[in-house]
Amino acid sequence: NTQNADVLVLAGDICTVKHYHSNPELGQAYHEFFKNCSEQFTHVVYVIGNHDEFLRKFLRYDISVGNILIENQHLYNAVDGKRYIVVHGDMFDTAIRNKLKWIYHLGDFLYDLLLKLNVVVNFFRKMFGLKYWSLSKYLKGMTKEAVSYMSDFEELIADYCRKRNAEGIICGHIHKADIKEINGITYMNDGDWVESCTALVEHHDGRWELITCL
Description:
Strand content: 15-25%
Distance between the termini: 12 Å
Shape: globular
């Protein structure tokens, strides 16, 4: 429930430019989404991710559309007095940083494939009265390399936060929702709206909570 929220921060990967060309209906859905965000919230911050990285070339112009501010990273002063850095997190992805784009695109293709298979799997689960279950999330959790990658990602991003003299960092990218302390840094990942359907909420008393939007 976001009725009492003033600020909405989107941590990247909201849209991809290819959808505007390949799926006009989805492109229209993006427009409606941003219109609703602009009307519902006093301030909207859109932090760019790797899927919407085409926007980064416009950052030097200080992009803002109405009350929607578009940034590469955002500094947020929270109710609890801490300063948080909000980034998508792809800048800490070794494959992307080292320009191994083919690995990224292969992973992107396989992820999209798993999401399509997930629709079929959950169609049958629903027929038998079973709850939603994420195939891709399960496979990533079973793969040692994926678990190791996520751990390295979290350590690296927390270290970056410390070097920037912030107390906490909020990110996305790895699709694993979490709130925890890493060597004195508050690490929060909002998960995603596709598999885990999660979001981070800051309460008026300063508490942070992961909510499920299913």
